[in-house]
Write a structure and sequence with these properties.
Elements lengths: L4 H23 L4 H24 L4 H15 L2 H12 L4 H20 L6 E7 L2 E6 L1 H27 L3 H20 L14 H21 L5 H32 L7 H28 L6 H12 L5 H16 L4 E7 L4 E8 L8 E3 L2 H8 L5 E2 H7 L6 H9 L4 E7 L2 E8 L10 H85 L8 H32 L6 E4 L1 H18 L3 E5 L8 E4 H17 L5 E8 L3 E8 L20 H6 L7 H11 L3 E5 L7 E8 L2
Parallel strand pairs: 10-12
Antiparallel strand pairs: 1-2, 3-4, 3-8, 4-5, 6-7, 7-8, 9-11, 12-13, 13-15, 14-15
Helix pairs in contact: 1-2, 1-8, 2-3, 2-4, 2-8, 4-5, 4-6, 5-6, 6-7, 7-8, 9-10, 11-12, 11-16, 12-16, 16-17, 18-19, 19-21
Length: 718
Amino acid sequence: MNLTLTQLFPLLSMIFILSLGTIVLLKNKTSILHKLFFLISLVFAIWQFGTFMMFINSEEQKIIFWDRFIYLGVVFMPALQYHFSLVFTYFNKKREILLIIAYIFSFIFLILSRTNYFVADIFRYRWGVHAEAKILHHFFLAFFFFYIFALLYNFFIQYKKSKIKIEQRRLIYIMVGFTILNLIGGLGYLPAYKISIYSPISLLAPLVFSIIIAYAIVRYRLLDIKFVLRKSTVYLASLTVILVLAIWIKYIFLLFFTNITDWVDLIILIISIFLFSPIKHFFYKIANKYFFTSLYDSQEVVAELSDKLRTSLKINEIYNFIYEVLSNAFHVKVFGFLSYNEKTGAYFLQYNNGIDFRKRKKIQSNKYLHEKFIKNNEPIVTEEIKNAEYNKKTKKFIDLLSSLKIEVLAPLNLKNNTVGLLALGQKESGDMYNNEDFMVLKVVSSQAAIAIENAFLYKKTQDFNVKLKKEIKKATQYLVVANQRLMRLDQAKSEFISIASHQLRTPLTIIKGYVSMMLEGDFGELKLKQKDSLNKVYESGERMIQLVNNLLNISRIEAGRLEFNYETVNFENIVNNIVDDLKKTIKQKKLRLDYIKLPEQLPLVKIDLEKIRQVLINLIDNAIKYTKQGSITVSLKAINQKIQFCVSDSGVGISKNDLPKLFKKFSRGKTISRIHTEGTGLGLYVARKMVEAHNGKIWAESKGENRGSQFYFQLPVG
């Protein structure tokens, strides 16, 4: 099947329109306006696809089938467009009734379009083929144009009522789009009445309409008409050149290469696609050179500024870079940079090119406008706020901007902080700033904010470095002296703890020994009260000896004098012995002991027996001490060439806040401190140091207060 450009056009147009409609919908899925635009794009796509299928078929029945298929979308065009106009303007009771009637008639005509009273028979003409309109089609056509005039009337009334210039431009822009769609697109009905036209003209209408309305919805800010016409002229000129070239190339091929006529249209299409971009770029240059119109390449502007800003950290150079790039793009009459002081709420002039500040160095900000626009990273556009925000609160500030001929104040925000503002005057061409300009300004402002902030920080760093060198020199002399004193004090502290520990341990050991002998009856039978008192003395002595040992170990650890006597032992035997020794204490507290032994023998470990024994006793003793009722579980297992010990209890538990600091020096949990006030917070710290010295790991887990706790440590095998 040989396809001509005329036949391919509706298919390509359909793909573009449907893609555009999808993009608009994805931009804001919750907006009724975006949804309506997507539906309008969808019915256009149905029209274009059906037209394509009509063009490529020659059988009468298939042509009628595809023409009726077209009306699956076309019958909804009036209702959807009218609905669109209501959302864009306003609803009232009368308009709502008209909308309901529109949708009812759309469904009625959908059913009628399946009959021969709507379309039947075939009309063939030079550019294509169409089913002939019958009697019911006349009523549909009247329905169609009634709602088209109604929607244009809605836009026109809203335009007359609006006092905001930007909204008026928006409405003009939309009216132009809908007029093009329905006047040029409406020509597509003529072949149904046996009037031959060049089909691509009517098929072009929805494509143009979609582009215009997409800007209206997605971009929100409509380009002023003058700008649109200039930009459209560039595209029109480019398309004209492409069309002339296409006709010339086709003529040459048909003249000299008659044997490959089947491929001519495809070759022309490929050549046109490749040539369009450079031709369009050429016309852009011509327009910029002779009309000062902002037909710049936004990506080039951003890339150029980005490259320049990377080359300097000097603030004045950065200001110049920003001015040069924006001036080349926008051709502004005046330009300036204002820094912002959050404490005073004032804008201070830092860079000026053409703004007549009349010797003033600052501008007092308007709090309301600053919060509404600048803080939200939105520019203040003088012409717009004159129409929308001009009141007693803002009058003075707006009048000042007008007198200074500042058209736009673009915020430079960084991490919710305002670094400053770019002040731009009118363009030399007199054009208003359009949406593309504001998109570029937003990106440029973001880059400029980072660059300026970095420059400020760099300058502060340089100033600080000079000051710091002086302070460091002064402080270093003091620190040398202070450090020497601290080292002597630390050495004295370690010696004192070591001597005191040795001196205390001997008498405490003797006291403990004699008390133990008395409790065992070596000095005669004791009464119950005497035993109770001696038990308390024994326990206190035990705690004191443990404290002394901990202090001595800490002293040795910090001094780097702690010695280890490693030997290869059976770890399970050590745990068995300790559990047996503590069974009596556990029984006295009426607690249950669960000792989980593995059936297989555990690997041997190389450890300092006394030090690890001290860790084991400390952990199990803590579990007994802080468990009033319930059970204590001791378990051993081998994991990845490591032996893991765990003691679990049903005691007071540990809060989430206490867990991270549990193994720090002199640190105790709040709940534990209230239960046992005599603790020092050294036991777990020493245990951690001992385990880490064995290349092991120790930690605790708990689900919270009064939910028990688990203490683990691991030692490497071997």
